[in-house]
Amino acid sequence: MNCPVCQTSLAPESIYGHHCGARIALGPDGGRVLLQRPLAVSMLAVVSAIGGLVVLVIAMVTLFAGDGGSPAVVLGALGAFSLASGIGAWRLKGWGRILQIAQACLGLLLVPIGTIISILVLVYLVRPGVKILFSEKSPAALTPAEISEVAKVHRDYRIPAITVALVALVFVVVTGILAAIAIPLYANIGARARIAKAQADVRVLSSAVALYVQHCGAPPPVAGSDATCAAAPAEPASGDAPTALSLAQKNRQGLTAGPFLKAIPTAPAGFTQYRYVVSGGSYRFCTTGDGTTASSDGTTTTCP
Questions:
Q1: Which of 55, 104, 128, 262 is geometrically suited to a Cys-Cys bond with 149, CB 3.0 to 4.6 A?
Q2: What string of pLDDT tens digits covers the 304 residues of the chain?
Q3: Please, which contacts does 243-251 make with residues 24 or more away whose CB atoms are closer than 8 Å?
Q4: Residue among 139, 170, 167, 131 nearest 38 (CA)
């Protein structure tokens, strides 16, 4: 008798193909049964692995477009889960079948088509022959009844294959829709978060200058970094946020106060460094990015 895979001659009690290494069991009727992946399991594995990679790519795009956050973490976890389930199913590992079952359970939420298809997949994965294939048992350890169940799985490949093909189609469509919605959505969330940080930072900087003025009697000079209150800056002037705000200041009365700010904040990604503008006896901070200008006075639309 020859190996069903590589067609090499087999010894009567052989349980492995000599050249291909295929696992072979001797059936109750004397025939040989291959202990290999059924077509349906192979398709499930491929769909899960590819889908997992796609979701991981979406997670990476979300991470860079939206400055990270929980959406990217959730997408990354789902992608890694799907990829692991695909690898486990491809290798016929017991944990791979468990992950596939968990993935099908999640698919039950995709009412109504996803629910129907996931039920069919779950029914297939709990078949005795499928459970035996994923048990990682040696061919010699299988009973005749177990070998018979495996043979049934290989004979009944058409309906499961069609089911998995439908799963693949639904998965591709759903993934495409999610990608089309998620990437712009999370990018907008990231932009709003950056704008909110910039607006909060310029207000904090302005409040620090107000405390400085109360102590020193005048705003700090542009790019000022002295630890002694300086004279009022020449106007108009603009420059980087004065580091004097993060230093203790000694005024003319010999009193020391501060620092008024722990550290000069860093502007969000894509924004210019915070600018300090003194003009007309007033002062403000501003920055530009994501198509908008954040200013501590709330009205200015330009930033030098």
A1: 128
A2: 444 444 455 444 444 334 444 455 555 545 555 677 888 888 888 888 888 888 888 778 767 765 455 667 777 888 899 899 999 999 989 999 999 899 888 888 877 777 777 888 888 889 898 898 898 887 778 787 887 888 788 776 555 555 555 566 566 556 666 666 666 666 677 788 888 999 999 999 999 888 888 888 888 877 666 777 777 666 667 888 888 888 888 888 888 887 888 888 988 888 988 988 888 778 889 999 888 888 888 877 788 7
A3: 244/212, 244/220, 245/205, 245/208, 245/209, 245/212, 245/220, 249/212, 249/215, 249/216, 251/215, 251/216, 251/217
A4: 131
> Whole-angstrom Cα distance, residue 75 to residue 59?
5
Residue-wise DSSP of 229-285: PPPPPPSSEEEEPPGGGGS-EE-TTS-EE--SSSSPPPPPTTSPPPEEEEETTEEEE
Give the separation between CA 83 and CA 45, rounded to whole angstroms.
9
Spatial separation of the C-alpha atoms in residues 50 and 72, rounded to whole Å: 18
> Is residue 121 a contact partner of residue 104, using CB atoms and an 8 Å limit?
yes
Q: How far apart are CA 119 and CA 163, in angstroms?
A: 10
Q: What's the CA gap between 125 and 153, in Å, rounded?
A: 11
Under 8 Å between Cβ of 182 and 61: no
Q: Rounded to the nearest 10 degrees, what angle do helices 70-90 and 158-216 cross at?
A: 150
